[in-house]
Design goal:
With 387 residues, the chain is an alpha/beta fold. It has 18 helices and seven strands. The chain folds into two domains: 328 residues, Beta Polymerase, domain 2 (2-Layer Sandwich), CATH 3.30.460.40; 37 residues. It has a seven-stranded mixed sheet. Helix 9 packs antiparallel against helix 10 and helix 9 crosses helix 11. It is globular, with a radius of gyration of 22 Å. The mean pLDDT is 92. InterPro entries: NTP_transf_5. This is Nucleotidyltransferase family protein. It comes from Fictibacillus fluitans.
């Protein structure tokens, strides 16, 4: 399949197109004639939104106005300081977890900058994401609270649905201004994914620290980064830059394809590589061909242009109605048949909104299963009545 995938990059704002040209190693591809037409304020906004400014600052291209360059350099320096601060906290948390026999895999943060780019300053990170076995969650929570972290207790749950509907709990240190996401799954459910035991067996030791800090194996990292990016519509191109850097490393594509196929994510791998090839010129190797079978990877790649044209930020809620509607449909479109079946079945499981609609004693919560259709109908009727 052609790596172009029918993507019409003319729909992408010119400022973003120039940014992508500027961060290429081969600067001969730069089209300097674009410079006169650029809105430099938007240029900086796109660089910041997509978290690509460290790559621009690595070798600041000529032609960027001094004021725009200084603004990005200021953010770049702050990011370097922040990444060093996260490194220290990562070492501290890892040491305490090890002392308490808690196995930990660092998913993102400074280790990803070192692993993919060879330099922690070239990737941004606002927090630490770590994966631990579910049975150690309570113990890990206690350790973080002793360190001064406060739980961002936003998860409302009924009948323990949090264990499979969600995938992490957030902790914030008010004095250090550091956020840690404690994961027990790679992605929110319901969906199949590798167990912690399997991920631990394939782990790698990070080269960032002399202490025993572990990261995902390369094939597992590809699964994690592609599913995470796809779930967010690749609305930040830094996630595709990660895919580009990983794809250029020594990764076993046969094992990767087998892993993605096992968990029904092969079409997501195709989407990620097609987008990466289009925007970062990632080489498409013959071993990658199974990712591109059929029209679905190309269609899913085209569907992400919506997010890039609008500079969508899915983290800023509430989302505009058009974005919320599109994203809801998009999330369904990236599911495999098996995942769609699990999703439909999950809708039959009680939600906390059922508890809010009809509060019952905890001992009677099992009644929410037969009551759920009626409670849903009642909420819908009330909503229509309000309008």
């Amino acid at each position: 399949m052609s790596k172009e995938a029918g993507l019409d990059k003319r729909e992408i704002p010119g400022e973003l197109t120039v940014i992508l040209e500027m961060i290429q190693e081969d600067q001969s591809a730069r089209k300097l004639e674009h410079f006169e037409k650029l809105d430099w304020e938007k240029f900086v906004q796109f660089a910041m939104h997509h978290k690509l400014y460290p790559l621009l600052c690595k070798n600041m291209p000529e032609g960027i106005p001094e004021q725009s360059a200084e603004k990005m350099q200021s953010h770049y320096k702050w990011n370097v300081f922040n990444m060093l601060k996260l490194c220290g906290e990562m070492d501290l948390v890892n040491q305490l977890f090890m002392q308490n026999s808690i196995k930990m895999i660092v998913l993102k943060g400074p280790v990803l900058g070192e692993d993919l780019y060879g330099d922690i300053s070239l990737r941004t990170s606002s927090d630490l994401d770590v994966l631990i076995p579910m049975e150690n969650l309570g113990q890990a929570e206690g350790i973080l609270e002793k360190l001064g972290y406060q739980k961002d207790d936003y998860i409302l749950t009924v009948l323990n649905d949090w264990k499979w509907r969600h995938h992490h709990i957030t902790f914030i240190h008010p004095e250090k201004n550091i956020k840690i996401e404690l994961h027990w799954r790679l992605n929110p459910g319901p969906a199949k994914e590798p167990s912690f035991v399997d991920l631990w067996a394939r782990r790698r030791k990070s080269t960032l620290s002399i202490s025993e800090i572990y990261i995902l194996g390369k094939e597992d990292l590809f699964l994690f980064l592609t599913t995470h990016g796809a779930r967010h519509g690749w609305s930040r191109l830094r996630w595709l830059a990660d895919i580009d850097m990983l794809a250029r490393q020594n990764i076993n594509w046969e094992n990767t394809i087998e892993l993605m196929d096992k968990y029904s994510y092969k079409h997501i791998g195709g989407q990620a590589l097609l987008l990466s090839a289009n925007f970062f010129y990632t080489p498409i190797l013959k071993e990658m061909e199974p990712f591109f079978r059929g029209n679905r990877p190309g269609k899913l790649a085209k569907d992400t242009l919506f997010y890039l044209k609008k500079m969508v930020s899915l983290h800023n809620e509430p989302l505009p109605p058009d974005v919320a509607s599109y994203h809801k449909k998009y999330l369904i479109s990236i599911m495999s048949v098996h995942q769609k079946i699990l999703h439909i079945l999950s809708l039959l499981y009680p939600f906390y909104t059922d508890v809010e609609t009809l509060p019952l004693p905890r001992i009677l919560h099992v009644l929410y299963f037969p009551l759920r259709p009626f409670l849903c109908a009642w909420r819908k009727t009330r909503k229509q009545a309000l309008f």
